[in-house]
Amino acid sequence: MGLDQALDISVSAINANRTHMEIISSNLANINTTRTVQGGPYRRKIPVFSENPLEFSEALNAAESRISGGIEVREIVDDPTPFQKVFNPGHPDADSEGFVSLPNVSMAKEMVDMVYVTKVYEANITAYNATKKMEQETLQIQ
Question: What burial letters (b/e) apply to 86-119, b meaning 16+ CB within 10 Å?
Fold first, then answer.
């Protein structure tokens, strides 16, 4: 694997982490949304990641073509966790028994995910900078 390919892999992970952080932000922004366009409360979103694998033959042909590896957000799915029910008969979205369905978003879980994604993002930035430094030092060899 060449240094350019290592940079591509780091960039793909950085982009995937950026998307994950945007999803977390959306979840936090909708933590109290009880009515959506689809009907019902907001349902927490979860990113599904998949790798962009490199085949051995692709690695051998890397000199001829630019091959991306790394990771990507394949899709964004709804969290199937049930909604929280709260008794609030005065709420406009209360059912006939006076219960309101609240989104299945947990502030604590989202904050833990945010810290995790931040650390992974920082690690990928560090890997990118180390690879970039290796490329620069390679060019200065005399």
Answer: eeeeeeeebeeeebbbbbbbbeeebeebbeebee
Number of domains in the chain: 1
Q: Is the pTM of this model over 0.85?
A: no
What gap in Å lies between CA 31 and CA 84, rounded to an integer? 11
Residue 136 makes CB contacts below 8 A (sequence gap 6+) with none
- Residue 78, classed as helix, strand or coil, is strand
For residue 65, give its domain range: 3-139
The pLDDT tens digits along the chain (142 residues) read 577 778 888 898 999 999 999 999 999 999 999 999 988 899 999 999 987 766 666 666 654 555 557 888 999 999 999 999 999 999 999 999 999 999 999 999 999 999 999 999 999 999 999 999 988 888 887 5
Beta bridge partners of 46: 77
